[in-house]
Amino acid sequence: MEPKKLVHGYEHIVDNLRRLPRKMLLLHGKDNVTEFVLHDLCKNCFNVHKAAYFIDNPDFNCLKGVVGISTEELADIGDSARMQQSPFNQKVRSFEYQSHKKKGEPHDTVAEAIAKELGLQAYTFYTWDMKHDNHGFLVCEKNETGHPQDDVVLDGLCLLSFCPVH
């Protein structure tokens, strides 16, 4: 990729990431802050069309689907009810597995199983530590243009850790 395009791409990501905390504060009290944040990350930062966010809680032996975003299903964002009723979101939210952390399963095995259940052909995944010994787990489609560096994506995904889980 051309250096100018790369720099412009990162400027775009940084600009969108810096605005997210303020958006999160404006959405405070809504039931689906997490959907809005993940949608913003997918669409405006990382150009990801489908993403599924899970929280792994080893203490309760649970890997639970929190939110699924399909930007194709949510072309014009803004309607909270539509976001919550999105078929992809409903499918992700219905998933509940045993904690792969507790079982000692490798991340890639879990990501493969989730991707298969969600029908994601070309996928990648990210994991990060959260408060209270929980762990974030995101499985997403790879995009055509490539993802930013993993540490940039993880920095953005960590914002999900500050969203309420319903």
Would you write up a description of this structure?
The protein is an alpha+beta fold and 166 residues long. The protein has one domain (3-162): Beta-Lactamase (2-Layer Sandwich), CATH 3.30.450. Helix content is 45%, strand content 20%. It is built from seven helices and five strands; from the N terminus they run ααββααβααββα. The protein has helices spanning 3-26, 33-46, 80-85, 87-93, 100-103, 107-118, 150-157; strands at residues 50-57, 62-70, 96-97, 123-129, 135-141. It has a five-stranded antiparallel β-sheet with strand order 3-2-1-5-4, sandwiched between helices. Strand 4 (123-129) and strand 5 (135-141) form a beta hairpin. Helix 1 (3-26) packs antiparallel against helix 2 (33-46). The longest helix has 24 residues, at 3-26. The model has no long low-confidence stretch (mean pLDDT 87).
Per CATH, what is the topology?
Beta-Lactamase
Q: Would you list the SSEs in sequence order as H and E?
A: HHEEHHEHHEEH
**Number of helices in the DSSP assignment:** 7
Summarize the amount of helix as a percent range. 40-55%
Apparent shape: globular
Distance between the terminal alpha carbons, to the nearest Å?
40 Å
In the sheet with the most strands, the strands line up as 3-2-1-5-4
CATH architecture assignment: 2-Layer Sandwich
Q: Total domains, how many?
A: 1
CATH class: Alpha Beta
